[in-house]
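Entry 14. Ran structure prediction on the chain below.
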Amino acid sequence: MSPVGSVYSSLVPQAMARAEALREKQAATGALATLPDGMRTAAPTSNGFSEMLGGLVNTVDSKQVEANQLTQKVLLGETDQLHQSVIAMQEAGVAFSLMVEVRNKLVESYQELMRMQV
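Output, structure tokens:
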């Protein structure tokens, strides 16, 4: 194999891995951009990545607390808004699932970056 061919064959896997990592990062970023209105407040700001993730977790937690409070009111007979409770529980469940998927994509991206040869 010629020297140019050997250099080319060694660079192609690295370029493919970096392109895949970039696609995963863009998919995670795209998932964050499509968040519902209530979660959009946790969008990236100039404060940093950790604060953005903290805001996302706090938003999901507040939705779960709200759903639990509505469910408790229905169970205690304080209100008859059963449909509001079910909607809040579904919304909290979807928000939690979305947060888990974003976390999984971030972990996959991190692992892919760690496997890259420098």
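The chain is about 80% helix and 0% strand. Will compare against last week's run tomorrow.
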